[in-house]
Amino acid sequence: MNIPPQTVKRGIHFFIGGLIVWQIIIIIVYLVSGWPNREPYQPFDMDGRLTIPTLLQAGIILSISLIFFAFSLVKTKPGEKPRRSFWLTVALLLLYAGLDEMFKLHLGFSGLVPIVGTKYWIGIYSFLIVTTGVLFYRDFKAVWDFYRPSVIWGLSGLGIAVFGAFVGEIFKYTLLPLLLKWLFPQRQIVAAFAEQIRISLEEGLETFGEILILYGVLLYAAKKLESHHNV
User: Fold this and answer.
1) Of the candidates 159, 173, 170, 151, which has an alpha carbon nearest to the alpha carbon of residue 206?
2) Among 2, 3, 46, 188, which residue carries the largest CB count within 10 Å?
3) Domain residues of the chain, as ranges?
């Protein structure tokens, strides 16, 4: 039985909308429970391991990875783009990113490679993103030519996620300590809550961006299915 394309898209919209609402609830619970006790409700700790927020982020990333793995299994003609190697490479990178989000692997590697367990992981991830974009430029262009809205949503989500992650970490190590020391030198409660606000913004933007990426990927998959049905 063929499902009408509009029904598929409607289902995608409801699913993505549900993820956004759930993320908003997580942020509210995290902030409300963290004031004034300074200890957020542990299952909703946005900076913890294996908590609801981290599992949500990991689930989104791993879902995208699974979809890309599925694309890599689809037979393609010789020379056709996107190539299997493109889908498989991005899927593997996303698999690591999802596991890293869940278990904070980059922190655990600090004993082997000290630079990985510090703020410099930002540069490492940036290098991987740029390198992948350069190596698979023609494959990305093929995705763009096939269905541009999905790429626009995906790039928008990537931009938001990168902005949240990078700016949040840079703010943590530079401006935030100076501002707190200047404005609230004796107010530890205020300082702790300010850090929670920073975390909620950083993780919230990351998750929202990842949701938009998933939305773009699902739209692309739906368009692919629609094109196969119309052949």
Assistant:
1) 159
2) 46
3) 5-34+42-230
